[in-house]
Design brief:
The chain is an alpha/beta fold and 230 residues long. It has nine helices and seven strands. Strands 1, 2, 3, 4, 5, 6 and 7 form a seven-stranded mixed sheet that branches.
Length: 230
């Protein structure tokens, strides 16, 4: 049985053929300059989010690429016993793995629960963001994390940069807890179907879902005025 990353499951949601090719012919992937730019923008917004959600700088950042996945998962388990923010916390369970942008501790009935924040460099919540949140919530809860809520933080299009490195108010949140938690069985079906597709000897002929590529250009337009500021 394969363990699918969140990105692989989102690829499946967009196009079955895309998932198959990413698994069996990863060498064919070539990111365009606009896609690479979107990654850079997302990274910049992520860094801003870390400062906004952890102004005192007490949080811990997990770097799976540098530390290795096994260490990243182990460190996540260790840090979940603390009461400080965690960035890029890693979870693996139920046939999938995922990394959360922001995990914030919250006391509830004397117990520590966690609030997950997924940060997006767009000005609104898209359908694939909702799929993203459903996967994140499923994997974290399957891994035994006491997840109390999950929200999606995106750019406020009405926000104006005041200068001086002050990004307060840049992000607005939409609570997706009820929706994401209710889609657990749906995510299980995605994982099972992705297993079937990955096991095929020949690539599927048809794609399913909408075109998710255009969000790159929207994200670039949304963030241009912010990322070019001194």
């Amino acid at each position: 049985m394969r363990t699918f990353s969140k990105s692989k499951l989102l690829a499946y949601r967009q196009c079955q053929k895309r998932l198959w090719l990413e698994i069996h012919h990863p060498e064919l992937r070539a990111d365009s300059s606009s896609t690479q730019k979107s990654f850079q923008v997302g990274h910049q917004v992520g860094e801003i989010a870390q400062k906004l959600y952890d102004p005192k700088g007490k949080g811990q950042i997990i770097d799976a690429q540098r530390e290795g996945f096994a260490t990243a998962f182990a460190r996540t388990t260790e840090l979940l016993a603390s009461s400080n923010p965690i960035f890029e916390a890693g979870f693996k369970a139920g046939g999938a793995l995922a990394f959360a942008d922001v995990m914030l501790p919250k006391r509830k009935a004397g117990q520590c629960t966690w609030r997950m924040v997924e940060v997006k460099s767009s000005t609104s919540v898209k359908d694939y963001h909702r799929d993203d949140a459903a996967i994140q919530a499923f994997v974290a809860r399957a891994a035994g994390v006491p997840l109390s809520s999950i929200v999606l933080a995106h750019i406020d299009s009405a926000w104006i940069y005041p200068g001086g490195g002050d990004y307060e108010g840049l992000l607005v949140e939409e609570d997706l807890t009820k929706e994401a938690f209710s889609r657990e069985q749906e995510v299980k079906v995605w994982i099972a179907e992705a297993q079937t597709i990955a096991a095929k000897r020949k690539e599927p002929k048809l794609c399913t879902g909408g075109d998710a590529v255009s969000h790159v250009h929207r994200s670039l337009q949304d963030l241009a005025k912010f990322t070019n500021t001194p």
